[in-house]
Amino acid sequence: MSIDRYKISMPSSPLSIAVTRARPATQRFAAPVLYVHGATFPSELAVGYKFDGLCWRCDLVRHGYEVWAFDFLGFGASDRCPEMTGDASAASPLGRASSAVRQLAAVIAFIQAKTGAPRVSLVAHSWGSIVAGLCAASYPFAIERLVFFGPVVQRQLTVSWPAAAMPAWMTMTREAQWQRFSQDVPSGHTPVLAQSHFDRWASDYLATDSACAAHGGVRIPMGPMADIAAGWHGALAYDPALITAPLRIVRGEWDSLCNDADAAWLLSRLPADLDKDDVKLPEGTHLMHLERGRDRLYAATRAWLSKGDRHVPVQRHRRDLRGEAA
Predict the structure, then answer these.
(1) pLDDT digits over 288-308, tens only?
(2) Which runs of consecutive H residues, i.e. helices, occur in the chain?
(3) Alpha carbons 243 and 255: distance in angstroms, whole number
(4) What is the spatial distance between Cα 120 and Cα 154, in angstroms, rounded to a whole number?
(5) Rounded to an integer, what distance in angstroms lies between the CA atom of residue 292 and that of residue 247?
(6) What pLDDT is stored for residue 163 in this prediction?
(7) Crossing angle of helices 97-115/127-138, nearest 10°?
(8) What is the 3-state secondary structure (H, E, C) of 35-68?
(9) pLDDT per residue over 182-208, tens digit each?
């Protein structure tokens, strides 16, 4: 499988987004699949990361999908925001959904221009589902199908959150990532991620930030954390009722960030006549795409994406999306 790599310049900005494209030998489906990563690590450490020679992207390509991925500004191979070189307390959280959705729209417009496809299907993880949801609600003509893996949705927490005190960016350490991989696994249960796998993944993760040694970890924008906090305090960044694309929730049974109540809330807020469902997979956490049970996640994703393409004129999509993105 060959990977094409691009850099997309953002409108009215000197910053560029890193984008990848993987094409199958025989493409079975018209709509390209675009992966939208979560709050703490980029796409190559997620959909593109291989354990035992296989990754989520590999699986989709093998089954006939053209798979795209990108890194939001401040992550992975995309440009770092200028504010991330200075004092984190000197600016507000970077990369909120309201700006991230413009990056996603720019990537979709680029895919449409490259492929001629009028629509793309989005596979979004965690905080990425907030951006994908906002995109699907804002640009319904551009979205074919949606898979929300471990989506972060609206809750009604009563404890206040110090939005004004949140920094522009933060440092994510190796130890903090290990905690994320292990905290939801029941006591006494076999680890869902082998230590040897994590050690290799963590080493590659730390290498995504050239200033890792100076900061003791990977710098990440804090906008995603602010969006999650806002959603958990009753202010989700998008209205699920505006989504028109078929949507599947996929989550691990041990996922504390997307539990039964969260999935039920999202399903109840989507349009009543929308094709939608919720799939809870056994022995998985919020990071199931990198765990032992990841093949079940792969299969649930493929089953939803393969249900069919819709057809609408291409040119209107390109014009509208590019105009909105600009």
Answers:
(1) 999 999 999 999 999 999 986
(2) 56-62, 97-115, 127-138, 174-182, 195-206, 212-215, 223-232, 260-269, 294-305, 314-325
(3) 24
(4) 25
(5) 25
(6) 59
(7) 70
(8) EECCCCCCHHHCCCCCECCECHHHHHHHCCCCEE
(9) 899 999 898 899 999 999 999 999 999
Q: What is the dihedral of CA 289, 293, 295, 297, to 10 degrees?
A: -50
Q: What is the pLDDT of residue 274?
A: 96
Distance CA 304, CA 276 (A): 10
pTM: 0.93
CA separation, residue 246 to residues 138, 236, 271 (Å): 15, 20, 10
Amino acid at position 184, single letter: D
Given the DSSP bridges, would you call strands 16-22 and 3-9 parallel, antiparallel or unpaired? antiparallel
d(CA 74, CA 171): 12
CA angle 44–298–41, rounded 5-degree value = 25
